[in-house]
Each structure stands twice: as structure tokens, then as C-alpha cells.
Fold Aminotransferase, class IV.
Amino acid sequence: MLIELDEGYSFGLGLFETILLYKGKPVFLDKHLSRINKSIVDLGLNIDKLEKDEVFQYLNNNKNTFEYEVLKIVLSEKNRLFLKREYTYTEKDYQKGFSLNISKVRRNESSIFTFHKTLNYGDNILEKRKSKKLGYDEPIFLNSKNQITEGATSNIFVVVENKIYTPKLSCGLLNGIVRQYIISNYDVIESEIDLEFLNNTDEIFLTNSLFGIMSVSNLEKKIFKSQKLGKNILQNYKKYLGNI
């Protein structure tokens, strides 16, 4: 695979999308295309719009029989990469739930890069690796005001007395595709959430395009006895996938 050096690979001025393939079909493809094409415009990048035909051409030329796979698309000024990889989440992950810790790295809610899925992804990867070494599955970032924002690869939802809360976009986070699905299908309160509120929640679940909805077993030393709502939403989400 030949990659040309450009501003995407020199300075991170490129974009990517990670898309779940379910039985060969790209889940929420229109949403992913809309997001990456909006980012091209918002960031003023010299990149051609990503078209649906390009995605299907690649998929038609790269078929296999796995139920779940991952499609990654990377765009920069001189490069358009389409890559498939194995889906690694297992039933054991869903049964156990994710373990979270609070990162010491702060999200910059004043930076445009925070709100787009760009090749400036170093904080996410390094903090995720650090959390793994400490025995956690996912770090959660605070912003400069000590407000909860998102995980390294996920959006966060918290449940208090059967009410679902999630951080406002203005707190500094990526508007995840499954985050949008949850907000569109459930009563969700978008608000500013601090650590005290987080530590007093009844339940937490995470969302991203690959695992969909993942319940949380603990936030550092705090153990969550309930994963009921998150797992119920996951079952509904699986039914949705089965009908696409």
C-alpha cells in the first residue's frame, strides 16, 4: 500500500471513520458519510467528498463471510484508504462490562479538533494503552472545567433514577454515531456532568460504532451493581441491526 506524504500524515490534517460491518453491510453508513464530509468542510481541508459508491466498490471487491467486521476509511489530501480488520469484541466483554478510570489528560473544548474524527488521535491511543496497563478498559476524559466529556474511543451515558444523562457536545467531545442513535430513540438529558455526579450514578454505559452499547462494571473503585438499562438498550440495538 503506497501512501503519499501530505498534510494529513505530516500534521494530522486528515480524517477517518471506523464503521461496523454486519453481515457485510456498513451500519449507519449515511451517518458516517455525513460526518466525515461535514468535517472536510468545517476544517477547510483540500479533500474530495467521500461518496457511497466508493465504499461499496471496496466492499464488493473485498467480501467474506464473517458476521461482524470493521471497515476503516482514512482520508487526506493525497490518500484515500479503505481497510478491513477483524472484529475483536466478544460476548465475554458484554457480560463483564467495561472497567473505567479517569484520565489525567484534559480534553480541549476550545479546539476544533476535539469535535472531529481527525488523525490527531494520539491522546486517545496513548491514554487507552495506559489504562489497559492499569487493568482498565477505557479512560474517561475531563475538560478544562473538570466536566466529563467522553472516553478514548466512546461516548458516555449515565443513569440516575432511571433518567439517562450524557455530556453536552459543548463540553468537548465527538458526536458519536451511536450516541446520535441513543439520543434519537431514548429520552436523554444532555447536560454538564462533573465527577461528583458521575460517582453518584446508578449505572453507566458507553457507546461507539463497533461495540454499540457497552455496560460499565466499575469506575475505578466504585462498583456498579446495575447494568440493567444498558443491557436492555443493547438488546434493542441488536434487534435494530438484525433489521437493517
